[in-house]
Amino acid sequence: MVLIRWLGRHSFCLSRRRRALLLKLMAVTLASLLFCEFLIYYLVIFWCRWPEVGAPARGKREPVLKALFLADTHLLGEITGHWLDKLRREWQMERSFQTALWLLQPEVVFILGDVFDEGKWSSSKAWEEDVARFRKMFRHPPHMQLKVVAGNHDIGFHYQMSMYRVRRFEEVFSSDRLFSWKGVNFVMVNSVALEGDGCGICSQVEAELVEVSRKLNCSREQEPDSSQCAGGQRLPVSAPILLQHYPLYRASDANCSGEDAAPPEERNIPFQEKYDVLSREASQKLLWWFRPRLILSGHTHSACEVLHGGSVPEISVPSFSWRNRNNPSFILGSLTSRDYALSKCFLPLEGTVLSTYCGAAGLLVVLTLTGVGRLASPFPSAWTRLRVHRAR
Q1: Quick one: angle between helices 350-376 and 2-34, nearest 10?
Q2: Contact criterion met (CB below 8 Å) for 247 and 316
Q3: Nearest residue to 205 (alpha-carbon basis) of 284, 271, 149
């Protein structure tokens, strides 16, 4: 009877210890998931702030447009995209985007091309599936606008580009070349079509850009009722901001710096015109047509700041995805018709998330081994006590 009672009490103690161990393991697992998949995005993006635009020297203060710029999301497709890679990186972008919208409340978001990774060769069905995933990830309230320019992975490089791919992209994301809000003019350039070889799509895009240039120049004219400017809607009198996928021509990233610039071993690699950057000729055309005050581009997946002609700054926006870099980011812009201010907002490091999971896994192992040891240790002690009891 004594033995049966003792074994009953002992089994009750073991079950309590097992439950306690299981609760500890569940708590560590849930805490690590909650932190790495949700809380870390709020903790990091919380520190991002909209930059302040300088007060005008005279006159009333102009309305400020809050714009968010990101690039190169590269949503994976059915051909080269592994399901685990899709799940991990697309969840990262979705949480980053939704957290940024909730904390920062931008009025407009611009994506500077390469929304998709396989748009250049995806079938109609695969395209529709990719678009549906994009709309889920980058969902936004109706009062906020989302504008997208085409990248080479969306419609193909020049030799892959077709009217069919261009049209299906524009049916989803609009074919507008000009967007104006709060006195700020944005020119959205299909830079993939600026090959300069006279192809049908290239000629059409150039004609559209020339027409946009004419409208903008008319808004700057002292006599807007001249024969060339008669009729049509007047645009805000403001130098435009150019938005495109390919950067304007530069020899390399040798003069780029910062923690999100290209790695040092890659910065001196020469860029290839019409592949890494626009050609010299196309770059000069854009500068001459639009006389922009600012240019934002993507494509290189790394950050860079370049000054064209000694006065026109270009900002290369890094990739938004962990797939392309460990420290993705986006740009916050406070814009008026005459001035602007930019700041960069970094997203959580992929390395930080992986390290956290490794630490949590190590803690789970320690807790498991410790718990198993504590559960197993009473058994030899019990048999030892039983032998001692019988000897007496």
Answers
A1: 180
A2: yes
A3: 149
